[in-house]
Amino acid sequence: MDGAKVREFFCKIIREDEDVSVGVAAIRTLMEIIKHSKSETVQELETNLKDGINVMKNTDYPVTAINSGCELFLRFITLAALDTRCFSDCKKIMLDRGHLFIKKLDEARGKIVKLASKFIEDGSKVLTHSRSRVVLQALRKAHKQNKRFEVFVTISAPDNSGKQMCKELQAEGIPCTLILDSAVGYIMEQVHFIMVGAEGVVESGGIVNKVGSYTMAVCAKEMKKPFYVLTESFKFSRLFPLGQQDLPEEYKYTSSVRKNSDLKKVHPLVDYTPPAYITLLFTDLGILTPSAVSDELIKLYL
Amino acid sequence: MDKTKTSTDGSSKKEKKHHKKQSKDGQLEANLAENEVSHGCKKEIVNKTNNDATTGTVAQKLSEKELRRIEWEKKLESQKGITVTSNDQSVGQQPSEKELRRLEWEKKLQEQKAGDTGKETLSKAEIKAKRREQQEAQRQAKLAAENAKNAAENVKKVAATTPIKDPGKGLGKVEKKLDFPKKETKKTTDVHKVQLVQHLYAEMPQKKVSKLLVYNNIHPAFVKLGSQYLNKTILGSNARTLALMAALKHLIIDIQTPPKQELCRHLETVLQTCTNHLQNCRPFAVSMVNALRNFKLHLTQVDTNLKDSEKKAKLQDVIDVYIHDDIYKAGDAISLKVKEKISDGDVILIYGCSSLLKKILVDAHKEGKKFKVIVADSRPLLEGKEMLRRLVVAKIECTYIFLNAVSYVMNSVTKVLLGAHALLTNGYVMSRIGTAQVALVAKAYNKPVLVCCETYKFSERVQTDSFVYNEIGDPDLLSKIPNTEDPSPLSKWKENNKLTPLNLLYDVTPPDFVTAVVTEIAILPCTSVPVVLRINAIENT
Predict the structure, then answer these.
(1) Which residue spans adopt a coiled-coil conformation according to this UniProt entry (chain A) (predicted)?
(2) Strands A286-288 and A280-283
């Protein structure tokens, strides 16, 4: 598979299936690369995969999830490669494992939703930021359990993805109010907790998410409101940002923006929320405190 | 030197002036005397003698005046001839001695006349008796006046100078000294020990004892190492561990298995005595304990069927691998990781001296990163000077400050890098005393704090304060001020039982103040220490 094909395949998945997150799409693409690869050695296959990852990173989709998902997948494969002799066997094992991996990923969201929906109580008011598929499903699930609650959604500039979130919630019959990004402080005192998704979870236990999450987390901390993050474990990445400045550029800006313009004048897409502001992370590994993220990462990668 | 010369010249000049003044006028001197008591000590001694003389005469004069007045009044009473106005006048004008004598003489003449002409004639004997009475009264009055005057003078002197001449208090002191010496000798062991860290004094190395020790069964390399630890010529956990490993290699080369014994078992016992000796010189660092544990583990695993020379080669290999992998390679890996975090224009604050930090900064500088370094330092060891020297040699732009200026510079700092003595299971960082303060200030200013630490310094201990496990350094170091000729005001602390300098060597920094720990494995939050320990334990077994 050459670069153009990889790109096409990757974009097609995302376009066709609204419910698939970018990370999963990336992993599916990698599986496709393995399937069609004509390489004869593990080494060659790995370079093929890395080329594919680079192609995906250069699309305008958020890099955070692509990065962590692919890293995890590669790790999965290198471990598999160690215990086989023949390359064709190895490839077969990789594909089997890959399918298993994807299956597990598909189940992940269900697990999170199950865990998180218990935290939504009757009569509670929830604040959420931007659009997150996991949060949406968790709210949906709670609604189906006949819990009565109210949701506040930020518009989330610049792409106004909050509007879509609000529409989807209202379609479900969940009472929902769209608020301004700048009204986070105003609304904070009346909500009971905050539920957001994440594009990536970093080594420190903090999250990388749509810009504005940090503001919300700081505000929540000050008002003593719990700040919950709903995220799949494949979004865990081995990155340790010390602050907003330390966040990689490829995370903050799309590839086309990075090539063309003066970055100081472009709005960043994501910000980094340090672990101190996060109450709990709901993942398919269970409900974790921020400090447990690093433990899980060490277990995965060492 | 020049300064001291000029100062002595100045003081001698003053003294000369002073002498001139003294010779000028006694009366003036008496008035000035009070003021001059507050001047320098030397002057005071000169003054004192003078003072005594002058005040003495003044007292005499005054008392004479008074006495004469009294006398006069008495005579006036007895002889109502002289008017009261003249008396008032004389008191107001303070008549000179001549006048007084004249008046007295006149009075006496009048008295005699009266006696001659008066109705009550007195015999010569009676007059003599009367005079004797008067003289007696005069003498007593004089004494009383003088005493009063002296007492007043004494009080003034006490107020101006420190020594207390009160006989009562002096006696009390003597009594105390007589009462307490026995108790004091008993207490000397407890005196100068801080209650909170009593348990740490037991571990304190005792210099005298170690000199007298007969080094039985202790390898010379360890004897040397012991004295180096004791004198703090080898400082820092990395350096200490490396030195220990080097000594261990010497021991392995030189050891000879006694007949009917196995090398490794014999080595174990020998090593035990050697390490005991080292412990007596200075308590082990966590890194040393870990390194030794690793070696002992391998010692038990050596194949007993091998020849001695092969065993030795294997053991030496173990040490080399440990030094290479866990210390040097780990340092390289950490350096690489920190390098990513150092960006152009950074101002990096470091504290004290750390071989690892030096390596990191020099590596980053070689890479072409443009950053400034602020070296914070603290007494008594002033390790920061060595760090500064090393960084300046590497041509890194540096600023040198003391710990108390950290909050001042923190505003301009972008990152804080710290070394560590050990990382504890609960995420606390054990490091050079003062590190916690730096981290605290950094936290207050929202600056990222990176602790650089190899995983071989991770410890299973849990500690939330710096008292349970610590090390006490030489308390004399606190009272000595380097590079000054003046003796420190604290130099005689041993004589004051109420004064106890406490020189702790380490403190613990809570994980709240630390953004991340950079290890060779990854950049981790402090809280991940137990996971790393668990994984290392699994790998080793």
Answers:
(1) none
(2) antiparallel
